[in-house]
Amino acid sequence: MLRRWILAILVTVCGVLVAVAQLRAGLPANGGVELLVFLALALLLSPWAFPRSVSAAEARRASASDGRPIVYWRPGCRYCLQLRFSLGRLARRAHWVDIWRDPAAAAAVRAVAGGNETVPTVVLGEEAVVNPDRAWFRERLRSS
Questions:
Q1: What pLDDT is attached to residue 1?
Q2: 42 and 68 co-located in one domain
Q3: Are strands 70-73 and 121-124 parallel, antiparallel or unpaired?
Q4: What is the pLDDT of residue 52?
Q5: 75 and 14 belong to one structural domain
């Protein structure tokens, strides 16, 4: 569980240290602004930036019944973050599975990515695409 949050925690700690250094230097406004920037970055690197994750088994069951794609991701992955924010509200039309939270999800990604845990990996029915083109995936979500 901590592994999912480590980047967000480290960025927050760095922000606090920078803010304290600015306060000691007599620059409280600079410290406050820099702390806010670090906290915003920590939020982007945290699991909170993504839709609620489900287990791989739950995503497969739900996808079989509703036809929505499955997106395998992990916290701190810049490509996952780019995909997530490029989708906007369309991200809710997919089932999101955190591979660091679910070992079965990590195994599913390794099975389609040549033994690597390369994310984002999108599964649409029987088709699996590793690191999909964002525009292609957006169009798939719109059409479903």
A1: 61
A2: no
A3: antiparallel
A4: 83
A5: no
